[in-house]
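Exercise 3.2. Students should predict the tertiary structure of the chain below and write it as structure tokens, then compare their answer with the key that follows.

Predict this chain's 3D structure.
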Amino acid sequence: MMWTEKYRPHRIDELVGNLEARSLIIKWLDTWVNGTRPLLVIGPPGVGKTSFVHILSTDYDFDLIEMNASDSRTRDMLESRIVPVLNNTSLYGKRMLLFLDEVDGIYRRQDSGGIEFLTRILKEPTIPIVLASNSRNQRIKELTKNCRVIEFHSIPLDLSERLLNQILSKEGLDFPTSEKDLILKRSHGDIRSLLNLAQSAHAQYMTDKEHMSEIDIGPAVDAFFAETTLENAKNILARSDSHYVDPRFGLSPEDRRRDILFAFFTSIISSRTLDMNTRAGLLEILSSIDIWIGRIFQNRNWRLLRYLDVMLVNRIFSLSRNRGINYSQYSFLWPTIMQVISRSQGLKPLIPILSVETHSGNSACGSLTLPYFIHILSKHGNLEHILTLLDLDQKQVSAIAREMDQIQKRMSRTRLRLHG
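Answer key:
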């Protein structure tokens, strides 16, 4: 059984950290009346936000209605699920508590009115409403205006250490101090991560206990691609200062640097020793694993995280041996970078226009819709007719024309290679 499930807190006294924030939430619920402003609980993953709401609903005898807001982005979807909750009583006659998790997963354009709908219902709540977010950012700016904001923080080192010792005692284990220090350092105040790392260390998924040490992401990737045995490659990856991150949300520069999948991606993309087929095969593997990571985080099925290292190494190992791949991040030549920046600046004004026409967010439109739109235009489109319909100015038309020209040149070079 996964330790994250086995040691999931079921009573308030089993929670650690954020005592003041939890006290404020209890006081809010104790004094709640019709029209009381909803709560917005902001804090990093693994600090007990969701567990605390579950415990409160049990202790106060509420019928908990839990929804993941990032899965229900549109106004129609949110309205169809939330309005019946607000207008009805519990099946068992209990008071109801509505919990909307991961509201920072709602994007302003992509949500198609979801933010506006939530903002409206938050102004006149008829039942207690709690929202949770991993961070405070522009996506939830409107929500913060209509909620009482309470912040959770990463669990302090001393409390994390005390919890780790309690868990190890219950399991009848005695880790060396150096191993416990590494687990605490790598968990970064995230209790879920701490439990996963501790269980992995016990099961020897993380690394050989006698040689446990943390390797920075750069040397770890270099060592991984140079290693000749599958088992040693697994140990190197497990000992690296890296992690898998939720691809749905924005990342800080440090989070992005420590994202092992991104480190592999930039190393493979930047390598000058790979042939086209090998590069394509490696990127296809990374893409499929990225999909699994997204599903794990979306469904909060944390127990599957432990298998990602094994999946990544087993699939990428044989194809990447003796290929001369080295760690590289953002190591593109300056003329290449300038060309990318220039082209992106030319296309940037097109994205808001096209996103409205395709009913998608700016991010999805820029990464998915726009490339296909230009490719279709280059092969089949009537450029003047379509661009007139979109009411584009001359600069925007020129930017699309340049991209179409680039595509046609690449297609010509491909045909020459195939027939040459």
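Discussion points: The CA atoms of residues 266 and 329 lie 5 Å apart. The radius of gyration is 25 Å.
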